[in-house]
Design goal:
The structure is a homodimer. Chain A is an alpha+beta fold and about 140 residues long. Chain A has five helices and six strands; from the N terminus they run αβααββββαβα. The interface between A and B is large, with 45 and 45 residues.
DNA sequence: CTCGGTGCAAACTCTTTGCATTGAC
DNA sequence: GTCAATGCAAAGAGTTTGCACCGAG
């Protein structure tokens, strides 16, 4: 767990805390809450404050280094490293465990899931982007 | 705005407040926050407290009368009447406005959106359900 | 009349902000 | 040495809970 695979991109000042959060995300295979991240960091004996974690995560998201999501029924925000690939999840409403889906083209999702002993009760699809007005405002 | 189209299902005790929340949801075409709902209710001059709105919404969700969602970058929970049909959204990251998509089969989504002057920057697809373990536990 | 529903206040959780201090460059 | 980043405390937003009173059945 000590290994440090990914470097902070230049332009982002290196600090012990940032490297530590990056390493926690790097070593996790599923989205984590800020509290989780803070806890894991402590275990890797890096002391850092929760508000710092939030600030670092905000930075990482802005820099496209991390992705922020929430489960559709709310609750805490989850963060994961941006691995720059399509990822879709199947979320168990019981244990909240996350199955990562293979590929994207949607066809065959249900089949893949049933092969993995997952009973689908619903889904959600959302596209994000900007409507014309907002897109213009952003220029 | 006074019309009352949908009845509270039997088994749920009728109260002024519940009918009012139901009517607000019925008359809204897009997901609303608890605060929005409370505000709208006041306008239809039904006095009710925000905590009551939360309790009513919780009940409605449990009874499958309403659906709860959150936008993937978090923020407040949104509620809408369960119209028992597939619905997928395009969410503007600028103004948070929600476009409802036609149909479901996914193909052609991007096309439909570009025709509606919406620049897609990302999407998310999540399937919900139960993994084997949890499914067994629930029986 | 009874018991669940509501008004209201207060607690709680997650997240953000302000400010003095620390540490990277 | 400078200025941004962090530690820490405290505030804020959204949501939940506790309890006494109210009102639907």
């Amino acid at each position: 767990m000590k290994e440090q695979r990914r470097e902070l991109p230049r332009g982002i000042k290196k600090t012990r805390q940032r490297e530590c959060v990056l390493s926690v995300l790097e070593n996790s295979d599923y989205p984590m809450s800020a509290v989780d991240i803070c806890g894991s960091a402590q275990k890797e004996d890096c002391r850092l404050w929760l508000s710092t974690v939030y600030r670092i995560l905000e930075l990482f998201v802005k820099e496209d280094l991390a992705l922020k999501t929430t489960m559709p029924d709310g609750g805490t925000a989850l963060y994961e490293l941006n691995r720059f690939r399509h990822r879709h999840y199947a979320v168990c409403l019981g244990c909240r465990r996350v199955l990562e889906m293979e590929g994207c083209p949607l066809e065959g999702f249900a089949t893949e899931l049933s092969e993995r002993d997952f009973r689908v009760t619903g889904h959600r699809i959302e596209m994000y982007g900007y409507c014309k007005e907002c897109d213009l405002k952003r220029q």
